Amino acid sequence: MNRLIRSFGHAIEGIVYTVKTQRNMQIHIGAALLVLFMGWLLQISWSDVLLVFFSIFLVFILEMVNTAIEATVDLVTGEFHPLAKTAKDVAAGAVLLAAILAVIVGFYVFLEPLLVLLN
Ligand SMILES: Nc1ncnc2c1ncn2[C@@H]1O[C@H](COP(=O)(O)OP(=O)(O)OP(=O)(O)O)[C@@H](O)[C@H]1O
């Protein structure tokens, strides 16, 4: 049980580290809070809330994996290496893809209620 609690503590440390040190993560959190507030204002359906949560968490998760890969690469080498570049670029690309998906979901969920509100 103690081991389980310790693992949980390490996981929380990882989340806190990412939020504290990664500017992109802070931007993702700001954007997520804004989107959730908009969802509340526009009274989007529960299934759309779920969709929004999935996209938000996907971006958070990949930003954390990206941070882990960056730390690992920096641990292994401080020198310029084509494989280090590949590892970091691919990880960053994964975050970008998740962010694009989040924008697509945003359009799908918010476009209609926004148009209704504006009319
Ligand atoms: N050791 C290295 N060898 C080769 N290229 C590298 C190396 N370290 C970084 N790069 C290149 O520089 C880019 C930026 O790397 P860096 O470690 O500064 O990430 P970052 O800009 O802090 O990323 P993020 O904004 O996601 O935190 C990488 O995507 C990669 O193209």
From TrEMBL:
Specify the protein's topology with respect to the membrane.
Multi-pass membrane protein
- Cite the InterPro entries for this sequence: DAGK, DAGK_sf, UDPK
Any signal peptide, and if so, which residues?
none
Where does it primarily localize? membrane
Top-level taxon of the source organism: Bacteria
Please report the name of this protein according to its UniProt entry: Diacylglycerol kinase
Q: Name one GO molecular function term.
A: kinase activity
Q: Which family does this protein fall into?
A: Belongs to the bacterial diacylglycerol kinase family.
PROSITE patterns from the UniProt entry: DAGK_PROKAR
